[in-house]
Amino acid sequence: MPEPSRRTVLATGSAAGGALLAGGLPAQATAAPREASGRGTTEVSTPGDPWRTVLDDADLVWRELPKTWYEGPYLGNGFLGSGIYAEPGTRPDGTATALRFNVQHSEVQDHRPEFGSLFGLARLPIGHFTLEPVGRITGVDWRLRLRDAELTGTLTTDRGTLTLRAQVHDTRSVLVVEVTPSAGERGFGWVFHPAEAISPRAAFKPLPKGYAGNPPAETEEHDGVTAAVQPLLAGGQHVTAWRERTRGDTRTLYAHVAHSHPRTTARDRAVRAVRGAAGLSYDRLARSHRAWWHAYYRKSFLSLPDARMQRFYWIQLYKTAAAARRDAPVMATCGPWLEPTPWPNTWWNLNVQLEYWLIHGSNHLELDAVTRALSEFRGNLTKEMAAPYRADSLGIPRTTDPSLVNGASVTDGGYGVGIPGQDPPTPEVGNLLWALHNVWLSYRHTMDESILRDVLFPLLRKAVTYYLHFLEPGTDGKLHLPATYSPEYGGNSRDCTYDLMLLTWGCRTLIDVADILGVDDESAARWREVVGRLTPYPTDANGYMIGADIPFAKSHRHYSHLLAVYPLYEVTGRTADERALIERSLAHWVGFEGALQGYTFTGAASMSALLGKGEDALKYLGELMARFIRPNTMYKESGPVIETPLSAAQSLHDMVCQSWGDVIRVFPALPSAWADLTVHDFRTQGAFLLSAVREGGVTRWVRLVSEAGAPCVVRHGIAGAVEVRDGRGRGLPYEEVGEGTVRITLGRGESALITAEGDRPRLRITPVEPNEAAPSWGLPGTRARLAP
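^ thats the sequence. predicted structure below, dont judge the formating
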């Protein structure tokens, strides 16, 4: 059937749901909520709490000592992060000498823009604590408890045991590690090791001329609190403060990191934070910490019969909240867990976009730092432009610091947006438009018009205007772009597909947003001209090209030339020829081995889901798991990067629900092995909350709650005639608009339940049974806990 028009859903009012973007989490629920449905209530409370069941099952387990960040536990709150693994270096007998607790912070960076974003503005390593036992380490038995965001377990040595609990407190931003030693380990100790305050890129690339590391940290004592004060050459400081408290047989370490520039106020803040936290026991701190996390998880629910994949999904929700907060810096390539890396800052040509996609469907827009940062630091986007274009244009370079500053152009250190006639080697122009697509998604999932009015429209207008300066008509009557760069492929091309696809989306979106906001913009005619006259995306016999001058002819990890397919959904296979073009392009892209990386397979999975190919989507995710995902679900290329596992969670979303094109598609691309599936409060475009259950390969019921009163078109997937009922069980009028698709009128706060005619299923939200046992994530060893 033809898709309903874009305008249908867009032309709506603002929604109360938009408060999710600015507001905090709901108060902790003492029991699972009960919600209105067509039979009175939807039961989300079962004899075993479903959230507790899936989260406890997803805990990561270690019965082998992790040796690297890619194997070990990790804790965080969007600001402070700690990765935990064996201290590198061993005793003569080959056993580990100590346990490392890294201490890193997403706000800690250098402030020397003259050396560029990857040296002068780079995130700076802080240091680590070592837990140093009396004896040699012989074993571990740990569990990262997702539900509580805590590490618990024992470290065994030839002299005894150390029983530990650790958390990075959600609001106090304090690393708290409680250790209870046996008699033989009472002499264990803690040692802090400050890191050299130099860009991590220095280990991979030559230093820019004149660049030097910052001076060493200095250790101070402040009435029982120790502080490692790191001065910065550019002014300011970052400070790690800590204190150990003894209560009976238990010793507890409290540590906090603060950063300040250009003032030197971080020391006082860090000392105060530690002093305040150290007055509280671990259990007292844990109560409020756990409350936040318990409420966080209850905002949505997903259970599927692949035990390994279900655990992976819930770990990504944990990881996202450990790495992101709305008021925290936009995630850098490795989140708050800085490790040696050539990429020690924020990356805007793919990483940021992929990192934040999963917040929409999982109903966690309270983590949306992208919309906040682009709005807050828009003035710095103006400064990225060459002087002639600053009055009306915006752009974002490949890399920036948290305030969207790139700094000067240095060798291997980043560059500004390209300018014809003055282009750097790779003018990568479309990054801001792609980032603004994430902002668009935040609007579409909340229908909060303030996002359009205050952020998207003014920024997108200027991002598009930059392109308009350089569009030129060709002899064919079409509008063409000068040579620009498709991320990571190599070589500049006229009519670069990356830019054409983003520019098309940008102009179409500006037209729609102006209509929603009632804005009579002087540039609207130009936007319509671009949509109507822009040259077609370059293609050849293999599908989409990189640009008019460059075919796709070598292995390439990035899907920069396929954005119109995913995630823009501008090309969706509406006709047989369009579908064949997508299939041909996808097969050609993934057919070149050599340079493929993890996010190649998440992109391929989501494109397969668009085409309704659940088996293919699962195959690509299987390739990702087998080839790239590490024991703790982290991911490595030349250094640690976290966008790929997070985008794999979005690929799962795309298999379970899609809502592009003004249609909510329920279970659009499930593999046959996923005969049973439960989803609850999945957030869709149009600001609907979706709950649905599939049993034995059949969709039993679908329920939607409207937060904004937007038009509702649902491809429910229930065979045959259906019934639609409201929150009181009364029949709701609906219109059949295609096989398995209905249009329902719902006001704000109203709900609709869709079932097969005559069916009265029990509306229960409960975990599904796994198809087979699977080992836990982590390093569970031979005694791995298996699914029942």
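The longest strand covers residues 237-247.
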